[in-house]
Write a structure and sequence with these properties.
Keywords: Metal-binding, Nucleus, Zinc, Zinc-finger. By secondary structure, the chain is α+β, with helices and mostly antiparallel strands. The chain has a domain of about 70 residues. It contains three helices and four strands. The strands form two sheets. The chain has a two-stranded antiparallel sheet. It has a two-stranded parallel sheet with strand order 3-4. The two termini are about 30 Å apart.
Length: about 100
């Protein structure tokens, strides 16, 4: 059984217009456990209605993004008219360009 590392962070501007970056969770999980764990962390931190962008390390995680997006849109909690944007990290983008 293989485990992958999951890193969840949030970036926001506070009431004093300072950029804040918080690590919400960092752990190792089985791939099958990603979906429920991420949704649970978002609920625990009260972030389900405040998400606008998800940055992912690779396109192999599209199924996780689709699950999270469907879950959040099903609850009708998203801002920006229910849009959730997926952005790939720079490292993965450069790797795909080289290949």
């Amino acid at each position: 059984m293989f485990f992958d590392f999951v890193y969840i962070s949030m970036h926001f501007i506070d009431e004093t217009w300072s950029l804040k970056q918080w690590v919400i969770n960092f752990c190792s999980l089985r791939r099958a456990a990603y979906w429920d764990a991420v949704v649970e962390w978002l609920e625990d931190w009260g972030l389900k209605s405040k998400i606008s962008t998800v940055t992912m390390s690779s396109s192999n995680d599209d199924d996780i993004f689709d699950y999270i997006k469907a879950h959040l849109q099903g609850k009708k909690n998203l801002s920006l008219y229910g849009q959730l944007f997926r952005v790939y990290s720079c490292g993965e983008f450069i790797t795909q360009m080289v290949q």
